[in-house]
Amino acid sequence: MRKRLNFIILSLSISFSNNCLLSMEVDKEQGQIEKTASHNIIWAITIGSIDKVKDLIRERANLNIKENILGNTPLMIAVLSNNLNIVNLLTDAKVNLDIKNSHGLTALMLAILNSRNKIAKTIINARANLDIQDNFGNTALDIAQTLGNKEIIEYIKLKM
Predict the structure, then answer these.
(1) C-alpha torsion sign, points 153, 159, 117, 19
(2) Does the keyword field hold Repeat (predicted)?
């Protein structure tokens, strides 16, 4: 289990830095590179622009879009950016908390893997499914137990 978690963390770190590169779309008629509202949400979260995220939520950007080769969602990117304010905006906007990336990890699992306990609690309180398993059969509780995160272990058990 420990080796698999290390691989996942390394993969996530590498792909996170490439989000902006993969979030552009070519307008064939105009010959321009243009960012769409849904892609802009990734960019706004990456740079931590709370006002832009609010605007894009109002513009009904796709808040569940999967970006890059790992399939991270805006919520996952906010978790990886350690931005609790944006996580709160997204959970208030009722994003899908239970989407999995290509490793089968949810935003909650990413929060636990990165020791983001406040963010993990926020996602749990927003009613994330605690029974979802990653590609190796681990739940959020299993990951917390493997990492020895007693605070989150107790919190998850309290919410089950």
Answers:
(1) positive
(2) yes
pTM summary value: 0.78
The alpha helices in the chain, defined as continuous H runs, are 2-16, 37-47, 50-58, 74-80, 84-92, 107-113, 117-125, 140-147, 150-159
Which of 117, 121, 59, 120 lies closest to 93 in space, CA to CA?
59
Residue pLDDT, tens place only, 141-152: 999 999 999 999
Total number of residues shown for the chain: 160
Say yes or no to pLDDT of 157 above 90: yes
For the stretch 89-114, what's the b/e string if a residue is b when 16 or more beta carbons lie within 10 angstroms of its beta carbon? bbbebebebebbbebbbbbbbbbbbb
